[in-house]
Fold:
Amino acid sequence: MKAAFTLEGKVAVVTGSGQGLGQGMALGLAEAGADIVGVNYGPTAETKEKVEALGRKYTELVADLSKEEEVYRVVKEALQSVDKVDILVNNAGIIRRTEVENFSDKDWHDVIDVNQHAVFKLCREFGKHMLENGSGRIINVASMLSYQGGLRVPSYTASKHAVAGLTKSFANEWAGRGVNVNAIAPGYFATANTAPLRADEDRSASILSRIPKGDWGTPDDLKGPVVFLASDASSYVTGHILCVDGGWMSS
Ligand code: NAP
Structure:
């Protein structure tokens, strides 16, 4: 069974690997044996150092994924910098919070550009390369707001519903061609993304009261799920959205 979970000899591209959930998943994949290509706004010294301390290679690529031309450039650079890409983790994402009646066009477009448009393009572009190799794993990062409306976050909710749809759409077309496409839907995790929620005592208490596990998730909690979806252990799993939520969805 250990062999089914190993990622020795694999290369994983992880977007937004500099902090939070992306860093946690990059470290989990490296612990399972994968080399990492991190795609971020800028250098990610901490992740690089931690991946290298595990004896794995870390290739640092810089791109603003809200810009179409930078998405295409970084795909090209990634494919030039490593022999092959086996795993893609579409993790980079942003959120903007304002009540819907005052939600600006800018906050709509900024979030959709990164969370939805870039995810579509990265799936398609790295996916073509995986199809040529006859194998690959794509893991998108969805959300509880792939299922629910949320409060004050319409562009985020729309984009995460789209991530769920894209995951199923790509999975259907590529299931018979060696490329599995799944998503992880994290519940409520302690990262920069949720700092304003955790700082609001009432909101934090209300969120925690619905989590059967009783606490916010941590980036380490995604290591096992991402390794499972990236490895041979999940070879018959595709088009699935795996909730990693301390029980939120069932409560
Ligand atoms: P985070 O700590 O804010 O990390 C997001 C990462 O994405 C950062 O490394 C950030 O870079 C990068 N990023 C954002 N926009 C980018 C862009 N235009 N180009 C390149 N990189 C960009 O948030 P997180 O909580 O770890 O979130 C990671 C993913 O999980 C997101 O897709 C989020 O929607 C999803 N998620 C989070 C939670 C949660 O509870 N935290 C729950 C459900 C889903 P910088 O470091 O430079 O800002």
